[in-house]
Amino acid sequence: MTPRKQYLYKAVVDLKRTLSISNKRHLTTKQLLRRSEKCIREHNLLFNNLNDSTKIFVQSQMKSQSLKPRGSRFSLDDKSFALAVYKKSAKAYRMMPSVFALPSRKSIMDLLRKIPLEPGINSQIIEHLKLVVSGFKNELDKTCVLLFDEISLAAGIHYSQSEDKIIGIEDLGRNVRRTKFADKALTFIVRGVKRKFKQPIAYYFAASGIKTPDRVVALKEVISAVQSTGLNIVGTICDQAPTNVAAINILMRETVQNYVKKGIEKQSFGFEINGQEIVPLYDAPHLLKGIRNNLVTKDLAFTMNGTKRIAKWKHIIDFYKIDKYRLDVGERMVPKLTDSHIYPEKMRKMKVSVAAQVFSQRVGSIMLLLSE
């Protein structure tokens, strides 16, 4: 074979080898493309079965897991999800970063500080409620009750540079501020009757509690705002604080006066705001304590099976002594009853469980059995 033929032969062999390698690479690329398309289809199928929150969380984890903690960048949705988890359980959230890529506590606290919260009606909450309520298909889902109560605060003031105002003095919203140290906060929450939801609506700062006239104004303001969202308030629930009772009585009298002006007899049980009846209710724990406190100082006259009877706190004291000091039987019939349940000077009057245990079915049935 001449040198020229040898050269051509070698060139042909090299070209065949190159062509074979190219064909293999092309085949491998096609296989990879097919596998990628299959993976994408399965991935999309998997994601289509997830809700939006789960999709966002999974995508965030896929993006952030390979990054260093200080190199991660989280979206507003990521931070909102993290804040919701943190509010459910701060202890659990401190453990989760060891498994998931999550924003730091400082990041979510910074997000929380950006939310404008001021005493009075929060317009952003109301607008969000309107959006949520518009998605309720069943009218019963819109039925709710308004809960309000006062909590005690440690008096103190500080200057908010971002808001350019002093925080800690009496603030009733509507630019009504008074130069008194606030040591009470009145909060309002709506809670669903059929559909399970609850949402804080407003809060107010006051010195030594909000006075009755201001409380009436706050009630009207909050109820009107909630009604504007499409929710149907059917009742209010509060404790039996004198200011609460007085405010409700004022609303009841105003409703009666409106009916008198129209020449119509009032037949409803509650008061009306914007033409809608709202029934005032008192929470059961306070009612239970109220009954117990009244029975301690007063006798209760009642009729049972056509016979007039009188219930006295002394009856409960006598029953307690019989149960505690009897020596013929080792086990007590009601071992949970103690001196703090029975004797007024030792009674823990703010504990609901103390009143509930005295009026329990077990105590009542045993007393009835002994009386017979």
From TrEMBL:
InterPro entries: TNP-like_GBD, TNP-like_RNaseH_N. Residues 118-251 form the Transposable element P transposase-like RNase H domain. Residues 286-367 form the Transposable element P transposase-like GTP-binding insertion domain. It holds the Pfam family TNP-like_RNaseH_N. This is Transposase. It comes from Macrosiphum euphorbiae.
